[in-house]
## 1
Amino acid sequence: MKKIIVFSSLMLAVLAVLAVGTGFADEAAAVAAVVPPNKGDTAWMIVATLLVTLMTIPGLALFYGGLVRSKNMLSVLMQVFTVFSLCMVLWVIYGYSLAFTEGNGFIGGFSKILLKGITVDSVAATFSKGVNIPELIYAFFQATFAAITPALILGAFAERMKFSAVLAFIVLWFTFAYLPIAHMVWYWAGPDAYTSAAAGIKAGETAGFLFQKGAIDFAGGTVVHINAAIAGLIGAFMVGKRVGFGKESMAPHSLTMTMIGACLLWVGWFGFNAGSNLEATGAAALAFGNTMTATAAAALAWTFTEWMIKGKPSMLGGASGAVAGLVAITPACGYVGIGGALIIGLLAGVICLWGVNGLKRLLGADDALDVFGVHGVGGMLGAVLTGVFADPALGGVGVYDYVTNKVAEYSMSTQVISQLWAIGTTIVWSGIVSIVAYKLVDMTIGLRVTEEEEREGLDTVSHGESAYHN
Amino acid sequence: MKFVSAIIKPFKLNEVRESLTALGVQGVTVTEVKGFGRQKGHTEMYRGAEYVIEFLPKLKVEVAIDDSQLDQVVEGIKKAANTGKIGDGKIFVFDLEQVMRIRTGESGPEAL
């Protein structure tokens, strides 16, 4: 208990210093708006931000909650709920600044700490020249991504980790893995900086490391899914298996909840994917259509493959297939055509089914809710296939060149290599940060509850309440 | 007096109750139970994990009756709960020493 108090008071002290040093939204730094935002785009981004919020609370919370035993239901709901809130606050304090201001290729700077200088008139760039959206909604749209990603990890070490250890790990991972990867993949100067070839090169040099490598990730296949899945897999190894794993029944306590959660994820994901277009345009509609197509295809692919191999099509299989499809189409949704989305979905359903069966046995870790099997495998598959199906020759929209103002010549092999760079960098970066973060938390707070507490269930032990009374 | 305890398939409860009421049985106690017999359990699959469910859900129906009703009651339950498939259950019969109705203090066959 003492260690937790020391840890949290340290965090509070840091926050206090930051708060005193900077002050919220400095009115002095009001920036003259270049192009005022369009009301339609602004309205869409507000809605999209709400949809991504819905994905996490209660979508992901219920999806995960239904999959654990009833004695751990509240612990999962509470972990998702608290991690969402925690990352939201960290994002406002320093997350947005470190991810989305100019710095070096790996991390941004402190210029927008506590959202300093962002006013109602501040604008953020979109993917069209001369089109802006309010920076405040951009910052909070991105905030929901920064909050759901750490929450995805929770499924891997569900049912056995101390609540305090979960929070401490998340603070470290959010700061040293999520923020840098988001910066590396997504930070750039915006299209308006690409006025000429020379200006384009100069602007390109200020962008994130993986952006410069040419990796494309429309809505977060690497930043969100691979990133979280690696942290989850390492967590499953370092926290260790649940007591009784492989011997006792750990059957999900409510697949009804899981189905509701999966559907909320599906609906909310339209905010995630179509919202990542940042404008309410035909390109957003394409991302929407691709998301719908791939998800439905993946749900069917998982269902029918399971039916053939195991004899019965399960509800959990259908729901898992839908999530696998959502994950796989995420990086691709703004770049591929509907045909590409269909193939990506079908492959995701089959390959992620292998991810939670054959691959899971091969890895031997107790990734309790299959974070790696679904988000890791689906994320990597999607990232590679984005490079394949973005090809205009395969019905994709290609990659836009803001210097020549048209779609650039497309080389599938070059793009796939860029995608592999993004996957590899994310695996190594998230992997190393995760190992260090789990180790630090293990040495200070300790990762696991005792065996007796684990048998009793985290609801009563960690939270002093029970989900169900009968 | 006799005490009859029958383990039946849960979906057969209504038919068993109807048959017992038709025979003039005044009260029935039903409990949700789990167990196994020759039917054994079954396997459930959740993604990659398979779990053998060893204990199956059944209902235990208990009635206290007069000696004269025994044959009819056993026969009635047997007919009503029968599906002809494995796992239909069993009927146990015990001698019943004493019965008392709490409200009136009556005892013996009058209390049934």
## 2
Amino acid sequence: MNTGFGQTLQLTLRLASCTTLLLFIFGFPLAYWLAHTRSRLRMWVESLVSLPLVLPPTVIGFYLLLAFSPENVLGRWLHDIFGIQLVFSFAGLVVGSLIYSLPFMVQPLQAGLEAMPPQLIEASYLLGKSRWTTLRRVILPNIRASLWSGAILTFAHTVGEFGVVLMIGGNIPGQTRVASIAIFEEVESLNFGQAHQYAATLMILSFLMLLAFYWLNQHNRQWRIR
Amino acid sequence: MAHPLIQADLSLSLSGKKSVFELAVELSIEPGELLVITGSSGSGKTTLLRILAGLEKKALGKIHSGTHIWQDSATKTFLPPQKRPVGMVFQQYALFPNMTVRENIAYALPKGASPTIIMEMLEIKKLIELADNYPHQLSGGQQQRVALARALVRQPALLLLDEPLSALDPAMRGRLQDFIRETHQQHQLTTVLVTHNEDEIRQLATRVICLEHGKISAQGSPDVIFPQKKNMLKGIWLGVEGQVAKVKIGDNEVLVSFAHSTTPLPNSGDWVWVSFGVEGAVFLKKEGQ
């Protein structure tokens, strides 16, 4: 196994881990709001969150490329104020993945929160517990199956993304060259052996993650909230 | 006479089954009483309980407990549920599924309080042998006993019970009624119970409030209320809105429809309870059943 393969795989897993963690932090409040709000904005936000499910990844990648470009306002502002360049960088890949994988985290969390009886939260408040204690001791443990589903799907989906990464990340070894891009490049260079190595690894990894997802789903059905 | 524990003057706009109506209630709760709030479904009983608990922020008006102000919309004072000395038991128990019975009760323990109360509560409420079970391993009656024990750990000044027995079978209801009465007597705890069960009112209430479309239509001791609001209460107990009446079936008379297909048909000469709807008189049950 060559160092390029290890480096690419490591980068892929690092991107998926960062995306999953950050999406949990940002996605949870959004899912909580969607699960409990009666606002008319809800359907607008739900449609926006679900957009990456139906849009070609290249569309998202194209607009992100434009937005992040130092030639445009946002890109120039980020560069001038924070010294951040999102185009053709790992940070840019993370931002792109956050948008691209958003529904995969938010939708399971929202479903889990909607299925949880609201009285559990109210009972906790009436027992004198703060919002933070209620989140930690009541909400998160009781939606743990949804939490794991969201994490697994986000991770697997980020590992498998191609279009967005290619548009905004390019193919820089050690920085933006993730496994799916490497396969494309190896096939173009007719290195089918190398391509097989990446493809088989991704296939096994994805299969195992989906297996975990369905196992959790089945486990969750047996363990019902009453 | 002792000062009331709670004095409240509240209003909230509610959307009922047919229309939007105003819940507007002025009530005082005396220390140590077991106040039953009854009324047909959708009359605002549960909402009133939730306002007292601090779970309905949009309610207007005020709630005072002695010199403490729990809520006053004029001064925008709102004590969150965490800060109110209130225990509440819900219709669907609301035990935390991820915790055992012991953990559910221990969760209610305030910071710095002695954990011996958990053991005491498990013993008093005869829950010791269930202590390590999870809620899904318990019967409805057992879950409701745990919910009640959990609500008592914080030693609340006011206990709110929202139709706590409605999901239980009749035999279990009887046992839990005794359990609630014992708890009320043991702790001398001011309790508000929402129910539309005749037996619960007769067995438990020291005072009854009848709520109709968000307004108090009558209140007093059960002895006073029962004869005064007989037909309205009968309607509530039989699960219909509005008035009901007791009528005698004459020869060749036909009642338009039957409330339950399993209800035995009345014979001519029987006294029956009926309600009056757009489709005519609806047979509810035979007198004495």
